């Protein structure tokens, strides 16, 4: 049986060029980048060159890139260290109800430490109302953390406008760009972003490597205590093969390639929707459609069939999809994103699946997926009717 991967929002397979780059580094540059001898200098050169590539990808300066183990560490660092550093100025933090858990859980922890966290609501497209943000910004607000693109429904926040509002206040602006980095153009200067989090494994790079962009006007102490790596901003010996692999993955995503991927994923969405309509499957798109969406994510409400049944049967048929965030895929808890968008009582919460495309997805795979999904829906609805 062929296994078809349609869960690229969770993670992506490493590109062959990335694997080759990492292999070469493991063989040839095994030195510690903090060492001053030849082997250390060789590793440090790789580190510097990679950092430059990463910085250029978001229009940042080289010294504004802090290498981390991924977006979870980056999010925790930006949120927790800002709170600790600026607690004397104010204790209000603003985020949204649909953030990744690596933002929501640090926020929940800070609430136990006496901080006031505002969770902005979203509409049925998964987007905040800028008026709500403006109303929530008070003189004692020290941080606003709003994701750039949502991992479950593909909504894209108005980052430029958010950056303008936050810049006019006393707060710093952090965005989790995990789902948009490598797909959309990002300019931290133009959007007035103070912190930005990224993971390599979402763009066909290695796992356990990412970065946190920190505006060089801000001094943010290290979350990890130890050595003086990353100019004392992140302790721990740098993983040079992973860093080099990350940079290679970024190099592969030229402007032309990113534009091609966006166009291809938009076409894939239309293919799936038109095929399911032709097959008379009762469904709706969670979050809607449009050019301003994160195009590789498609979340569908399959009316009358539970998420559990859909996922299980698709997996048995060889299709990898998700019921929500990969961090909660093993959990039976309903999607907090869909609850925030439609309410806890909406049938969408328990009857939806997420499909997410990648560079290796093909039209033929999606035809096979739609045919299989149609059979699963027909079979399960027939069982329900027989019971009735």
From TrEMBL:
One of its GO terms (molecular function) is metal ion binding. Keywords: Iron, Iron-sulfur, Metal-binding, Pyridoxal phosphate, Transferase. Coiled coil: none annotated. Its EC number is 2.8.1.7. It catalyses: (sulfur carrier)-H + L-cysteine = (sulfur carrier)-SH + L-alanine. Its cofactor is pyridoxal 5'-phosphate. Residues 4-369 form the Aminotransferase class V domain. Gene3D superfamilies: 1.10.260.50, Aspartate Aminotransferase, domain 1, Type I PLP-dependent aspartate aminotransferase-like (Major domain). The keyword Metal-binding applies. Belongs to the class-V pyridoxal-phosphate-dependent aminotransferase family. NifS/IscS subfamily. This is Cysteine desulfurase involved in U34 tRNA thiolation. It comes from Latilactobacillus fuchuensis.
């Amino acid at each position: 049986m062929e296994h078809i991967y349609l869960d690229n929002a969770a993670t992506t397979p490493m590109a062959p060029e990335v694997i080759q780059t990492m292999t070469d580094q493991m063989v040839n540059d095994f030195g510690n980048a903090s060492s001053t001898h030849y082997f250390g200098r060789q590793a440090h050169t790789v580190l510097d060159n990679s950092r430059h590539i990463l910085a250029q990808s978001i229009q940042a300066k080289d010294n504004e890139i802090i290498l981390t183990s991924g977006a979870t560490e980056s999010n925790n660092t930006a949120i927790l260290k800002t709170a600790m550093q600026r607690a004397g100025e104010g204790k209000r933090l603003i985020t949204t109800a649909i953030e990744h858990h690596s933002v929501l859980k640090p926020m929940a922890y800070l609430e136990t430490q006496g901080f006031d966290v505002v969770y902005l609501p979203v509409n049925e497209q998964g987007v905040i109302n800028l008026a709500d943000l403006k109303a929530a910004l008070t003189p004692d607000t020290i941080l606003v953390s709003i994701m750039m693109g949502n991992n479950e429904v593909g909504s894209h926040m108005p980052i430029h406008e958010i950056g303008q509002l936050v810049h006019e206040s006393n707060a710093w602006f952090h965005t989790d760009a995990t789902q948009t980095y490598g797909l959309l153009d990002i300019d931290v200067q133009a959007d007035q972003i103070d912190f930005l989090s990224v993971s390599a494994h979402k763009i066909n790079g290695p796992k356990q490597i990412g970065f946190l962009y920190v505006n060089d006007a801000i001094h943010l102490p290290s979350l990890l205590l130890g050595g003086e790596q990353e100019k004392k901003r992140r302790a721990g010996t740098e993983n040079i093969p992973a860093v080099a692999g990350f940079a290679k993955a970024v190099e592969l995503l030229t402007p032309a390639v990113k534009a091609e991927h966006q166009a291809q994923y938009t076409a894939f969405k239309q293919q799936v929707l038109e095929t399911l309509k032709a097959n008379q499957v009762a469904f709706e798109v969670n979050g809607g459609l449009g050019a301003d969406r994160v195009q590789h994510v498609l979340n569908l409400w399959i009316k009358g069939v539970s998420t559990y049944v859909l996922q299980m049967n698709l997996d048995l048929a060889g299709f990898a999809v998700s019921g929500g965030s990969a961090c909660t895929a093993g959990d039976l808890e309903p999607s907090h994103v869909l609850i925030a968008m439609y309410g806890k009582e909406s049938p969408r919460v328990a009857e939806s699946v997420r499909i997410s495309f990648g560079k290796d997805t093909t039209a033929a795979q999606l035809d096979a997926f739609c045919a299989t999904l149609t059979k699963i829906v027909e079979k399960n609805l027939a069982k329900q009717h027989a019971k009735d």
